[in-house]
Amino acid sequence: MPRTTGRLLDIRRDPHSGELLARGGEAEAHSILQRAGFVAVVRLHESYHRAPAGLAEDEESRLAIDAVGRLRAVGYHVDCDERFDTDARPAAYPTLGASVSHLAERLREATDTAEAADILTELTAPHDGILAGFEETLGALAEFFDGLGDASDPYTAGRLRYLADEYVRVIRSDLAHTRGRLADRHAPHPGRRACTEQVPDHEPERSAVCACPPPPRALPALAPPPVGATHLRR
Question: pTM of the entire structure?
């Protein structure tokens, strides 16, 4: 059975169809596979990746070798056909998506509404915010499909413009309103506060290094009942 979870992947040519397939891994691995050139296939009972249609065998091999090196470089265990094995470990650089995800980390650490509003501005800024750039990118992709030549391409272009107009703009407008409410609120988050690393004068513990309350104590685990304790006596 193929391994399909965690840090394990298989990249092999299917013995029945001859297709180059990659199976296993999780979201990070799937991102690496797609950046290497693989195409995601999502079925009802399984998900995997395949090489793009129309590639020559040598091109598929180069794609597989690149994917194996990238995955192993970040700690994945990859089983593969012998011809795809490689000692190359390409350098991994932060992606644009990872930079955007950093906003989530900042929001999880935000201690007041002003800080949260500043972070949300990166999404909603009308000229150079993330959502404005996303909307512009969808428009550029629609223009690309306009001149691509297939009969279905104008429909795809129209669909992309619809997504930009009806969905991205609504999300952007709603988040901009949320950002304005946060900016007007001027309130600390009641469940978070910045540590000043200052010990108050009335602190009785001389070993204290800050005024933060101690973390909640975990309840001790209950010992299992003795063997036979649940049986009623006759």
Answer: 0.76
